[in-house]
Structures are given as C-alpha cells and as structure tokens.
Amino acid sequence: MPHEVIMPALGMAQDTGLIVAWHKAAGDKVAPGDVLMEVETDKATMEVEAQAEGFLTNVRAAEGEAVPVGNVIATISESPEDTTEAPVEEQKPAAPAPVEGKSVIMPALGMAQDTGLLVAWRKAPGDAVSASDILLEVETDKSTMEVEAGHDGYIAELRAEAGENVPVGDIIAIITAEKPAAPVQRSAAAVPAAPEAKPVAEPKTGKQAESAPSPAPAAKTGAARMTASPEGGRILASPKAKRLAAQRGLDLARLAATGHPQPYHVADLDRLAALSQQAASAIPAAAPADRIEARVTSAGYAEFRDWYAVETGGTIDDLAIWAAFAAASLRVAAGPDNASLVVEAQAPLLRQSRCYRDPDYFGFAGIAALDDDADPALIVRNLTGSRITAARHGGARAPRLTIADSADMLELVLDVPAGTLEPEVAIAVVHEMAARLEEPLRHIL
Questions:
Q1: What's 106's domain CATH number?
Q2: Rounded CA gap, 192 and 20, in Å?
Q3: What local confidence, expressed as pLDDT, does residue 129 receive?
Q4: Which of 58, 122, 154, 414 has its CA 20 to 30 A from that of 227?
C-alpha cells in the first residue's frame, strides 16, 4: 500500500513549510532513514527522512514552494511507475473565518516595489497595541523599515510569518477594539491567494480560443531546480550552504547573477569559489610601492624649535615648517627644475590637513596654506607623539613622507607609489629631509 509523505510540522508552531531542496527525484528508490528533502520553517531548516521503503512517486511540490502542514507532497509506492499526480489545489485548507476589525496592510513605504519581506513581528497575537507602536519590520529591495500599528486595540490576527514575502496592499494583520478570545497567527500561504497567484486554465470560446497561445508544459517536479532569482530577489540556499559561504567569504548572489539555478547547496560552493577566483584574477595587481627609511636624532630639531619660539614669541607650526623642508628636499633631489611644488602636510591624529604652494620660497612666518585643495607632489604626515611609527595605505595619489618619533630619534619613512618618483630621487628626498631635521639651520642658510 502506498505510503503518503506529508509536510511535517517538525515540532514547531507553523502553518507551512518551504521546500528548500529535494534529495530524491521521482522514481528513485528509497529506504527508511533516507533523506527525502530539506524543509525550511520560520525558525530552522531540517531534513525530512523517508518512513517506508519503495519508490518516490507522485511528487506534488517543487523546490521553493511553500506547502501547508499536513498536505501530501509525495508518496512512496511499490513501483516507480505509479506517478499519477493529484492537483495540489485539491488539498488546500478551507479559508479561515474572517475576523472583523481594523486592517493593517503591507505598505509600499514610498518605494517602487511589488512585495515586502516581513523581517520580524514586534507584537504577538493577543497583544494590546497603540497606533504609534511598532508592529513589524519590513524589508524592501533598498532598506528595512519599522511599520507602526496605525490603530489602537488588540492583535486579533497576523496573516504572515517572518521570512515571507507579502504583496503590497495585502492585509497582514487585524486589530480589534476588544481583546480577542482566540487570537490567530497563520502563514501568508495559508491565506486564500489572489486569483493571479495560481492561474487556472479556463475554457475559451470564440476569438479568445483562437488568439490565446498554448500553455507551456508544466515544469517537472521533484529534483528540478528553479531559475535563479532576479537581481535583488531572495536567494534560496540550504542553511549549511549559507553558513559555509559566509565562512569562506563567498557571495551567493554571484551565482544568481550568472543564472545558476536555485536553491543552492554545499556542492554549488565550489562553482562559486571558481567564479570568485576568476573575478579576482581579472583585477590587475597593484604595482608595489618603494619604501625608504631613515633615522636621525631629534635633539637638533628640538633646539631649533626652542630658539625659534623665543625669536618669534609665538607657537611653532610644525606642519608649515616640515612642508618647507619637504619642498626644498624634493626640489634639490629632482634637479634644477624650478616648477612650482605643492606639498600637503597632515596631522592625522589631530585631523588636520593643509596644502602649501612653494613653502620653501618664503620665511617660516610667511608660509600660508592654500584656500583650496590641490594635487600635491609630496605628502608629509606628522605622527610624532604617538605610538605609531609608520602607516601605509593603498591608493596613494602621491609619495608620502611619514615622520614619527621613538625615544630621542625621529624616524622617516617615504612610501613611493609606482610611477611617481624615480628610486634615486626618492632616496635623495629622504636624505635631504633627514639632514634638515637633524640640522635645521642648514635649511635657513
């Protein structure tokens, strides 16, 4: 006698189960304990085993389809030839009795969307709510937003579960003035669907019969896989595949973009990894940057600062002075070319950044920062007074000369992006800058 395979409740309070994947196809031989399919509820995904020996037949639901709990979705027969399928529509539960009250609909949230993904309910059936209470969270293709109840009263009915996509405008909750005696929560799949959700072939007459195209043949159920969801759509995958993809840094959306059919399983991750490697190899590797380092005693510059402060009776602007030193060092290193030079001076810990044009052409008191940012020929960073001795960042637009301190020494590090300075020029810049910091009067004279 054939054994019916029904949508199980899996020990959870649920109305439907989503078939994530079939592990057996129609006509396959099965034994007790064999995994038939994976079913996803609102809380977990579990494997459903066969309870009888025979052949899987009469598969009535495809992967990606939500099936009410208790519905027959397949049979285990003595012969693989027993493949007569019964229409799923015949087993749909009767429509629940309507609850009278104020309706809450799936909002559009001001976005061009057809559905909203119910992320979470903030209230449970039977709870008292006020109009301004947050009732649920809804995710659209661009954001997740909180939706208010809109009415005072009690939650009498919730018509969708977390994780379900609900068409915009559909009623998702009922709020009554009186506390309900038996509040209800059901899945959106258990609510009678709109006529267009499950089109039924109707007899056509006259011109309709002549002009209507022939219906496409029904897709094979069982192990058939769905077409990948469109960009921004929900991606179906087993929990293990999702977890392993996250651990390996793989994006399942990349598979969907290539048209690879859903739902995805662990075996699909190898294909996804290959796609990621191909994308990575297509990106040209960044050319390495040269690095030149130097160390000088800090005593010479410290004495200069003390002397200059007494002479001017003011505060020393290290950024302006070092910009002047750097411009002069680059000018000497690059040769006799008298082209104008812009130097950017940064103090990252103070969040300061200023650009100077030809600061070495003026006395220290006459150095003025530019009003607008300009493309620098050299960047000087002040990291003195911190525990950081050097820092390199990708995508530098100009050579960066970092000055840090350690004990009684100043440490200079010049990072040179490829194509900005010749190696000999870069070395000369560091040499000249180190000499000026060690003996600042050299710059003045």
A1: 2.40.50.100
A2: 23
A3: 93
A4: 58
